[in-house]
Write a structure and sequence with these properties.
By secondary structure, this protein is α/β, with parallel strands linked by helices. The protein has one domain (8-234): Spore Coat Polysaccharide Biosynthesis Protein SpsA, Chain A. The protein has helices spanning 3-6, 24-36, 56-66, 81-89, 111-117, 135-152, 184-190, 218-234, and strands at 9-17, 41-49, 70-74, 96-99, 123-127, 164-167, 195-199. The protein has a 7-stranded mixed beta sheet with strand order 3-2-1-4-6-5-7, sandwiched between helices. Helix 6 packs parallel to helix 8 (218-234). It is globular.
Length: 248
């Protein structure tokens, strides 16, 4: 018997959503069905509504009334994907944390593979080897990832992929800034955490509209890259030799 499989894993699934009303129940059911097949796991789903205006708020509230695994967080306005992820990470109770995009392009069926990898590594990033996007998005992403990896050397082919996995001890090292979701691997490597990637499924978007394009990513991406390069070189991870606590 594989002893690792008999231990209960506490898992938090974090999904940032913005105007994804048609995808919510489909995604939630898919996550719950996937994890229901893992007898050694118990989980929570944290859906973070990033200021949606299409009825996502009401739909999530209604789903939460009947689905006990669902934890809903509503942000006061639209802050962006990184802010929604940070809000979810700060509320996650699981030992293992998985993030997914809310557009159904990530596949919850990849979650068991990530959990297996997290037994021996700290951070796993998805790699959409066969992306189901327009050729413009595929090419721009390939160029961006090549430039980023050439400068930061994080070893990841697809750092902006929405499906990622962490061990809980990674969370304090994930710095809250607008754009962190594309640089988690680089930051965690600087924090001396083990980083790997896993090829994942990728599906075409069926419902809703993409929130990203070249115009709203190119210049901000360059700006972020400069900042993260500085931060990576200045990041400190002090080793604790010993400590004591006051007696109660």
């Amino acid at each position: 018997m594989d002893i690792a499989k008999t231990c209960i894993k506490n898992i938090s699934i974090i999904v940032p959503v913005y105007n994804e009303i048609d995808n919510l129940k489909i995604l939630l059911d898919s996550i719950n069905n996937t994890l229901a097949e893992l007898s050694h796991c118990q989980h929570e789903c944290i859906f973070v509504n990033d200021g949606s205006t299409d009825g996502t708020r009401e739909e999530l509230n209604q789903l939460a009334e009947n689905i006990h695994t669902l934890h809903v967080v509503h942000l006061a306005q639209n802050y962006g994907q990184s802010a929604a992820l940070i809000a979810g990470l700060r509320r996650a109770r699981g030992e293992y944390i998985i993030t997914l995009d809310g557009d159904l392009q990530n596949d919850p069926a990849d979650i068991p593979t990530f959990l297996d990898l997290l037994d021996s590594t700290d951070f796993v990033c998805g790699y959409r080897q066969k992306r189901q996007d327009t050729i413009v998005r595929r090419l721009s992403s390939r160029v961006a990832n090549g430039v980023r990896n050439g400068i930061l050397h994080d070893g990841l082919h697809d750092a902006s992929c929405g499906i990622k996995g962490f061990r809980r001890e990674c969370v304090p090292h994930i710095i809250a800034f607008n754009g962190i979701h594309r640089f988690m691997g680089a930051i965690l490597k600087a924090a001396e955490k083990s980083v790997t990637e896993s090829v994942v499924n990728h599906h075409p978007r069926i419902y809703g509209k993409s929130k990203y394009g070249i115009g709203n990513r190119l210049w901000r991406g360059i700006y972020d890259l400069v900042g993260v390069t500085w931060l990576q070189r200045r990041y400190i991870t002090p080793e604790i030799e010993s400590e004591s606590h006051p007696k109660p």
